[in-house]
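Lecture notes, structural biology module. Today: joint structure prediction for complexes of two components.
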Amino acid sequence: MFGIHPSRLPGPGLEFSQYRSYQPGDDPRRVDWRLFARTDRYWVREADTATSVTVQLVVDASASMAQSEDGATKLDYARLIAAALALLALRQGDAVSLLTVNDVAPGFLPPRRGHRHLHRLFQTLTVLSPAGQWPGWPGLERRLTAGGHRDLVIVISDLAEREEEIRTVAGKLAALRHDVSLLHIAARRDVTFDYHGVVTFEELETGRRLTVDADVARATYLERLDRDDTELRGACATARVDYLRLTLDQPVDHALRQYVVGRTRLR
Amino acid sequence: MMGVLAPAWLAALAALAVPLAIHLWSPRARHPVRVGSIRLLTGIPPTATRSLRLRDWWLLALRLGVLAALVLSLAGVYWVPERARPATWALLSEDALAERALIDSLRDAGLELHLLEGGIPPLGGPALRSAGAPYDSGSPARPASLAPNVWSLLAEADRLAPAGTRFLVAAPLVADRFRGVRPALAATVTWRPVAARAAPAQPPPARARSVLILAAPGRGDDARYLEAAIRAAAAIGAPGAEVARAATTDPPPALATADWIAWLDEAPPPAAVVDRVRTGAVLFTQTGRDSVVTGGSPVRTAAAGPAPVLPRRAPFDGRGAALWTDGSGRPVLSVEREGGGLVYRLYGRLDAAGLALSPTFAVAIAELWRGSDVPDPPAPAITAGQALPATGAAPPARGAPPGAVLLGTPLWVIAAVAFALERWLARRVERVGAR
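The predicted structure, tokenised, for the full assembly:
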């Protein structure tokens, strides 16, 4: 994604990037006439403008992220994704900020570049522990809209919401003309509901318990999940939010490739 | 009727608690699954929970059944069909017939009553009543030598009884009833000891006995003691006594008619005395020759009471059977048949310091006075273990009774079928759950 990070403002710039053949619709002023004189073909001189893209990583650190499957928690998975994305972004010179979200101990690393920032970011991710709940929009607004730029915002969350607070955040950010991606971390059993017999479920954030016959509840659950998923994808599409669901049994590199390829296609 | 060969295995039934505990304290129920959100699960009615539980109960019952069948088969459960159950014969000796309560309880228990005598005749209800004799405790007991031999009778009963019959023998456990070789019986024998019937007192003769005490010159005291004891014995019970005393050197003519003769002299009794004894009289002699001071060894007589001591005891010369013994078991008074009469020999002196002045002495003399026949030594009692026939000598066999059907194989089959059913049901539950 960042390797082929397209310049938002292609055209005249200080740093020469490449020549490409003229396409209909290109500004004739950008044709390199000297080259035309030499080769008798139209070449357009391209230069990257020095665009400064800030990548805002928003990692959900609420208690629900402690849900584990096969020895790894959702937060572990989110950590890896965030770290990998931060590494990619910083390698190509973008500034990266990290916002860890819960209502107990929210953390914020302002957007910076550089090696040392990367290490600070890794350290923050390493010591991150899940607690509390996702706060309401007012608590986040100041952090997320501070820059005023059009940033690339990547929200990594399990979307365990009381209401629709997380998707609201994504929607609001998209409405602020940020480039918003919503990476939904789900456990495999969240998707397949691979439980049997009478099972008591406990909600991590609230401690609420519910005992259901999993075999009977499965159909209803999967149906509701499907409907919820459809709604969510629809809402994201409407709000111009990239949505991607990753399950814990997916290898992280595979998940990242899926995300990057998806974004490339989107462009 | 059910039975168990190895009851200790039944303790393994405690293993039934394991699946029960697992079912009741299922880790599923105890440890909830912690998930991020149960938003999608709220409001799902738990309608089918009951049916699943029911299915689980079926599973549980099957598992318990498998375990129970295995345990019972290991414990060796058997079943004896009603028709195959062997009869039990109650063999009653004559002594047991007096114990009406015992007979009634045996008959109430459904046992076949038989009399333990030649031919092992059955003892039916009417027959028992019409006979009358068994309940008549006054019927004279037989002499010991003619007492029924329990072992030969048991061997006879074993021949007569159908195979598999058990014997419950009600007879006195006294040694003289068990003569000869211990038989080997096919039947299992259980003992119910009863008391041997006491020999009835013999009717006293009407005529008073004439007693002649012949004493050596130095034995006046002895004669006095003996005379007193005999008079006392005659005073306690019939027959009466007409006592006369004379010197050994000058036996009176009354010797020819005397019933009891006491010869108190170291010299052996003269021929006249011996002749009289051979024709039916009783002779009481005393020998103090080679007597030693015993230091007061207690003398055991047939009479009850404190044991008198015999300060001076002479060695036993091996004649006759011992009646009284000292503390070490050596004979003090022996009895021997001499022709038609009896000879009592006292090994020791009638000493004023010991035996002669003891009240027990008079009682013991009275015993002699009453029974002039040679008494049988009382038969020693034996234990039930000694009375067991050869096959019963071993501890009770651990096998099933005859006619019993061992349920081991059917139980294994049941366990296997139940296990297969349990596996099938469990898989089905799993499959339904996975769907």
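Point to remember: Chain A touches chain B at residues 64-67, 74, 158, 160-161, 187, 190, 195-205, 208-218, 220-221, 224-225, 228 (CB under 8 Å).
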